[in-house]
Amino acid sequence: MPLPFLRKILPLLASTALCVSGVANAPAAHAAAPAAVQKPGTITASAPLADVLSLPDAGRALRITYLSTNGITGKGLVPVTAEIILPAGPAPQGGWPIVAWAHGTVGVDDSCAPSLNPVSDRNRTYLSAWMKRGFAIVATDYQGLGTPGTHPYLDTRVEAYSVLDSVRAALANVPDLKNRIMIVGQSQGGGAAVATASYAPIYAPELDIRGTVATGAPYVTPELLGGLLKAASQPGIGYSPLINYVFYLAAGLEGHDPHFRPEQAFTPKALPIYRNAAHEYLTSLSHQTQEAGLNLQNSLQPTFLKAMSPALKAMAFPTLKLAQPLFTGTGTEDRDVPPALQLGLVKAACAADSTVQAHLYKGLDHSQVVNGSLPDSAAFTTTVMTGQPITPQCNPVPE
């Protein structure tokens, strides 16, 4: 149902202000590390994180720039930014274990990088709960989000390398951290968390990852996407938040693929909004797409899948045979990442013989499932952190 005017415009203004104000805090340049020490996880710049950007009751907090393998090409190094937030008080013996936090969609403009903006109320509650469990937070912005170059949205290799190298950087440079890690993410970050777990054994085998918690995680195959688009083409189907993510996906592809032609993906009705998408925060873009009356039916060309095939290919996981247990949380009322896509991930991971504990939360939407899943993810985390076996659940029922 349409939101009242004030409920729509106030978050829009707040979100836009956050993105714009963050630019002033961005470093003007990224200092280069000496050639002899340039490797993934090398920190090239570090500064205290402003209190307004940190978490309540946190201890030491930093914003770092580190080097990560270029996930687009698979070689070479690029600068990436991240936050490192430690709990207050003395560290436990051996140091704080780490939550490697993979954030959800905020936009693809540099000014919207999470390390340049205050934490949302939802994420403040969520990450504070993890800190109260005794974890430090290491939170990447992802390649190209707040640093030079495009942000290849939903590219699993880009996301995984950014997450893994942020943890390498933190462990190598920040005292009182322990090489014992939970990978945690929501929405875009839910997919990034699964991608990180998928790439970790080959890319960063030295990291002691104990488990993965993914809520609202997208999983796209040609079959699932085809079914989704077919359903969207039925008469009477209105606005879907998916159109915003599709615009970001295309903007990321256009930023590094000279062969991409937007007019082959989007209709004349959708192209003007698409051309704004790369510079819009999610709240603002969502407002624009609704005002323009866009939906998947009137926005996508028949050649959409062909035009977007490189980006869709980059969303694939190298394997879903994960080395550690996976927790998933899905809301039955999720309209941003339809439950069919999330449960498709559960089915595929279970078929690959991963240990999966899937939860389906009745009545919760895409955002509500984040904090709604906290009690279950707490039990899951205690189990995997202590090396106990997980009870698998591959066919969740609404709870």
Task: Quickly count the helices.
Answer: 15
The appropriate CATH architecture of the largest domain is: 3-Layer(aba) Sandwich
Averaged pLDDT, please? Answer: 90
Q: From N to C, what is the helix and strand string?
A: HEEEEHEHEHEHHHHHHHHEHEHH
How much of the sequence lies in strands comes to: 15-25%
- By CATH, the superfamily of the largest domain comes out as Alpha/Beta hydrolase fold, catalytic domain
Description of the molecule:
The structure is a single chain. By secondary structure, this protein is of the alpha/beta class. The protein folds into two domains: 32-220 and 315-385, Rossmann fold (3-Layer(aba) Sandwich), CATH 3.40.50; 221-313, no CATH class. The protein has 15 helices and nine strands. It has a nine-stranded mixed beta sheet with strand order 1-2-3-5-4-6-7-8-9, sandwiched between helices. Helix 13 links the parallel strand 8 and strand 9.
Main attributes of the structure:
399 residues, disordered N terminus
In short:
The protein is of the alpha/beta class and 399 residues long. It is built from 15 helices and nine strands.
Secondary-structure topology with pairs:
Layout: H1 5-22, E1 43-48, E2 58-69, E3 77-87, E4 96-102, H2 121-132, E5 136-140, H3 156-173, E6 177-186, H4 188-203, E7 209-215, H5 222-232, H6 242-254, H7 262-265, H8 271-277, H9 282-291, H10 296-299, H11 304-307, H12 309-314, E8 326-331, H13 339-351, E9 356-361, H14 368-372, H15 374-385
Parallel strand pairs: 4-5, 4-6, 6-7, 7-8, 8-9
Antiparallel strand pairs: 1-2, 2-3, 3-5
